Structures are given as C-alpha cells and as structure tokens.
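Appendix C reproduces, verbatim, an entry submitted by the partner laboratory led by Prof. M.T., so that reviewers can inspect both the input and the predicted structure.
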Amino acid sequence: MKKTFILVLMAVMVLAGCKQKTEAPAEPEFVTDEYGVVRCVNPSEKAVYLVFTAHYSTNDDGYFENFDGIVPVLDILKEKDVKGSFFPTGNCFRVEKYQEPIRRIIDEGHYLSAHSNHHLLLCTEDEKRETLVPADSLAKDIAGMEEELMKFGLEKEQFCWMIPPYEYYNQETADGLRALGYKLCNHTEGIHTSSDWMGPEASNYVSAEEQVQNIWDYEKASETGLNGCIILVHAMVYPDRTDEDRVYSHLGEIIDGLAERGYSFKTFKDLL
C-alpha cells in the first residue's frame, strides 16, 4: 500500500512538472508610437534595453560615421556582465576591422540585427514626412542587409527586430519594413542619448554628461520610471566630440546607476 502511494505521488509530481513546462510565457506588452513602432517593452517590469546603432560612411572612409566604438562598448558590457542589442548597418559588416568585433557580439551573447543596409533616409525631415524610398528600393536595401547578417550564420528569425535608419520613418515606410518581415523598435521618447552625434557647434548640442543626467531625470519624471525603456547609444566615434564627450564612454556609469536603482538588463533576444 505504501509503495503504491509513493508511485502515485511521483506520477502526480511528474505531471505537475510537465504542466509547468508547457505553460506559454506571457505575451510582452509593447508601448508604440503613432506609426506602431515599439518604444517601450513591459512598462510594469523593472528592466531596460541597452541598444547600440552604427553606420559606416563610405564617402569619407568612415571619418564621420563609423563603428569604432564597438570594441570599447563590448569591453564595458563584458566587464559589467551585461548584454546589449546591436544594430549596425550593412556597411559596417563589410569593413574588415569590424569583422572580429561583430563575431564577438554573437559569441558573447548579445543580440545582433541591423539598421538597414546603406542607412537610407526613408522620408523627409519635416511635418509632411513624405516618402523618399519607394517600396522596391527599400526591399532591395533590406535584402542587402540580410545578406550581410546571414554571412555570420544568422537566420532571419534571429534578427527579425530592427531599428529603422536614422531612427526616422513615416507610416508608409514603417508598414513597408513590417511587410518585409520585421518588427520595429526605436529609443524611448524623452530619453535623449541618441543625440550623441552632434558636436558643440550644433545649435541643439547636448553634452554627454547632460545626456546621462537626462536618463535619471526621465526616471524621476515618469510614473513607471525607466521600466521597459529602450536606451539608444551610438557606438561611433564622431570627430566633433572628445572621447570624454561620447555617451558610450559613460556606459559603465550608466550601467552602475541602473543596477543601483534596481533595474535588470534585457535584449531583443528575450522577445524572439
């Protein structure tokens, strides 16, 4: 009798374990902008998404736009044991000196997708936001991007999240990218680290120190703090900024500040 009871108990425990394993995970909650692009993930969860974009300008051999910040960024993330999400353009993949760092992105467990192939401006930078890239040209550009990602052994389902070039789009181009099989994300509105490319001569220049402070100011002002926020930093060495005036140079400080405030770090791998 005792033996029978034990066997029944074990069977119940196995079935309970099976039930637990087969339960579907909760669907993520997305906060989107007017074009349906994700700007925040799970605002009830105390986690942030660090994302890094880059482009390589072929007309000046990478003088203004490049991926030269990638190694310092990877080194800081490794030191802090934090994972990030990377979205370089296809141009970056074709530069020999970035081959090893791109492989590091994959090998060290970060998320890797792209930011288009040639960093095309998709629409005019005014209130009308008129489309500049027709659907066939957009499809051709994205196909070139996919070719570069696949050279590193990735399949499309692994890089199905992308940030549109210039982080700028209209409804037509956002819908066009979705029609090509992509889920779109962008930095959280109100967090200004993505403006780290402008030099001191620009009328709307903001120093790296002020941009870091903006993160903490945003947290205080927001009802949900930084929960689910997408914090975008350019992994690029812009010539008009000093090393100290690059936001990625303060990445360790940002990570420490987020950790001290109780935030965990997630990547777009968590949303596949």
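The two ends are 49 Å apart (CA to CA). Additional entries are available on request from the coordinating office.
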